[in-house]
Amino acid sequence: MSPYTEGQDGVRAVADAAGLTAAGWDSLLGAEDFFQTPRWLTVQEHNSGTAMDFLVRERGGVPVAGLVTAWADTSVAWLLARPDAMLRRALERDVPEAATVLREVAGGDPDSLLPSLVCGGRHLGRTRTLASAGATEEDLAALLDRAEAMAADRGAATVCFPHVESGPRRCSGGATCR
Q1: pLDDT of 97-124, one tens digit each?
Q2: Phi, psi at residue 83, to the nearest 5°?
Q3: Which DSSP category does 21 fall into?
Q4: Would you list the DSSP string of 78-129?
Q5: Which of 10, 26, 40, 100 has the fewest CB neighbours in a 10 Å radius?
């Protein structure tokens, strides 16, 4: 029996973290991806108190990109990855962009950002969309499209990538991707 189900877009939803290795997830990991290893994600899945999903984009039967998602609502205690709490904290600290985000994205109310599908994993720092050296922008777009469809199906108000690294995208093996 397969550990995942295939979508029409070449994106497979892996049933749980225990199925990630069989789905080829390990081939997408680089040296800085400890918090996205199947072993760590299994711990997160059991301790997070929320639904987590794992998506793998394949081309020709080979994994080329992966994405971890977690559901965030008011019942979730990990405030450092919830978009409402991050926006409130940014407002308290007078982060220049926070007022604009509050007005333009949250309609003046941080609570309007929930529920949210949080992408890239729930651990702070070193979270990203996993990508092999052969991954293309279309591969990453397919993952995002699937995540947005999942969010819409579940009634999410937002899809959030709370901790996006700056600089060139790193692929498995430490290579810089296109």
Answers
A1: 999 999 999 999 999 999 999 998 766 6
A2: -60, -35
A3: T
A4: -GGG-HHHHHHHHHHTT-TTHHHHHHHTSTT-GGGG-SEEEES-SSSSS---
A5: 100
User: Looking up tokens 């899945």, which residue turns up?
Assistant: 45
pLDDT in tens, 56-70: 999 988 999 999 999
Three-state SS string over 120-144 comes to: CCCCCCCCCCEECCCCCHHHHHHHH
* pLDDT value at residue 161: 86
Q: Which residues of 50-60 are buried (b: 16+ CB within 10 A; e: fewer)?
A: bebbbbbbbbe
Peptide bond between residue 115 and the one before it cis (omega within 30 degrees of 0): yes
> Is there a contact between 58 and 12 (Cβ–Cβ < 8 Å)?
yes
CA distance 31 to 129: 14
